[in-house]
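Entry — protein

Goal — fold tokens:
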Amino acid sequence: MSPNQVIVLATPVFLLLIAIEFWVGRRRGRNTYALADTFNSIGLGMLSRIADVFTLALRLGIYVWVQDHAALWNNDAFWTSPAGWLLALVFYDFLYYWNHRLGHEVGVLWAAHVVHHQSQHYNLSTALRQPASYALLGWVFYLPMALAGVPPLVFAVVGLIDLLYQFWIHTEQIGSLGRFDRWFASPSNHRVHHAVNDRYLDKNYGGILMLWDHLFGSFEPEDPKEPCVYGTRKPLQSWDPVWANAEVYAGLARDSARTGSWGDRLRTWLRPPGWQAADVAVRWPAPAFEIATVQRFDPPTTRGARALAALMFVLLLGGVAFFLWTADARPLPGNLAWAAALLAGLWAQGALLQGRIGPGLVLMLLSAAVATLAAAEGWTVLHRVFKPLTMLIAIALVLRTDGRGRGWLLVALAGSLAGDAFLMFDGFFIAGLASFLLAHLAYIARLKSDAPWFADRRALVAVGAVGLAMYALLWSGGPWSDGLPAGLRAPVAAYVLAIALMASQALGRARVHASPAAWRVATGAVCFMLSDTLLATDRFLVPLPARDLLVLSTYYAAQCLMVAGLLREGTTQGA
């Protein structure tokens, strides 16, 4: 049984304990839960386990290689004895302490670990809030166990024990446990660890034992007179699971690029979180932290949005459980398709609860995710239902608005719907091509209705050059094929011209409007061009691995971005 399958079996226990903690908190008048925060924390846990599917083999593979080739002491009989198991657990906990401590003291390591600390609430759901990028560097800390000859099975089991132990200490419903608090990780100790108070900051790193904190000077008991304030000193202020994982990396990259010193560019990643080079601190000073000004992030949501988010949570939980249970037997392209669909659902749930998009766009995104997954998994009937349904939802969204250019947008979506329908069946490629050509022309007309022709000439030249190069490659076939059939050269040329003009107009329009919505539309147009390039490459040049995932994910990204952007620029009623 894989570690991910163990997590699936443990999940009902986690959820039951969360429910009990919620009930106890309500009974005591000390509820520590908020719906959106809880969904966000558990959702980030789901995303972390999804990422683990693609990294676990690599991390264990490195461990196994080091243990096989560089172990200083090979004695499986000892390590699998009771004393060996206990020593391995203590050994792991010691290494975990330093992994955890440096995760707070080194910027690039904090960029991963920060996810676990972003919640401004403290409850059992916070324990499940884990980073997706942990595997980038976290595995390095445990190589001493491989050098000591600890067998991979023992390493994996004690690591899982250390992880599962830490679940119960994420609660405010259990107070001080007396002497236990001094020597073992406990709710009281770990509340201190999650606090941003000056007194508590960067304390109590132990996973199971507090021994390491006593030895290395990082232990701090909880003081009832100074309540813990949770979160991070630079609050996330978002329910976006992608941004939650990328936020600190983006900040480090920005500060690293801003400094004029090559040494400081490296130091930005290696110094403690919040460190800035002198020239960066002068021009872009970070605001000082004031604990008195901390406010919980809690954007208002409607009852309908909360109900839809709850339904999505149940479906996502089931989808992630099924994915984790079956991932080892599924080829990589299939796992990538599942991961993409689940990520789309998690992002849509967060955007809904934050008020960034409405229920209509959520349904469009979910339908697009199912259509893409169904195509990748070969679920033909499901694909033929959800592919047209996605465009029908988009059309319904536009029909509920009365914004500028609605007619052209409806024509574009109707053409896309027809193209989708034709391309699902053999023998209708020309009809599908013609339908999408009509859709692109309608998009061009809509984009021209509120902007001059090709306002960014550099974008026109660049996009035109890409389109021309792609058409030349399709014509010749390069080293892979005989190129376009003679009867398709003119239709494909017209299509390439139309989509290049659409992308160029969208980019120029974005420069004119200079709004986030206009740039979403431009990004969507570029995604449309990319999707068609992938489709043409697969059909006329060389078969692509994971073709359905590549083509459909970029196609639906294009449609969702363009619809969302154009609706946001007009009226957002119903979106």
Observations:
- The CA atoms of residues 111 and 567 lie 35 Å apart.
- Residues 571-575 have pLDDT under 50 and may be disordered.
- Residues 35-70 form the longest helix (36 residues).
